[in-house]
Amino acid sequence: MAPNARGALTALLAFAIFATHDVVVKTLGAQYSAFQIVFFSVLFGFPLAMLMLIRDGTPGTLRPVHPWWTLARTAAAVTTGVCAFYAFSVLPLAQTYAILFSAPLLVTVFSIPILGERVRLRRWSAVIVGLCGVLVVLRPGGTELGLGHLAALLAAISSSLASVIVRKIGREERSIVLLLYPMLAQFLVMGAALPFVYQPMPVGHVGLSAAMAAMAFLAAALMIEAYRHGEAVIVAPMQYSQIIWASIYGMIFFAEVPTRSTLLGAGLVVASGLYIVLREGRAQSSNNTPVLRTRSRFETGTFPRVGALLRLRRADTGGPAPRAGAE
Question: What angle do CA 267, 271, 276 make, to 5 degrees?
Answer without folding.
Answer: 150
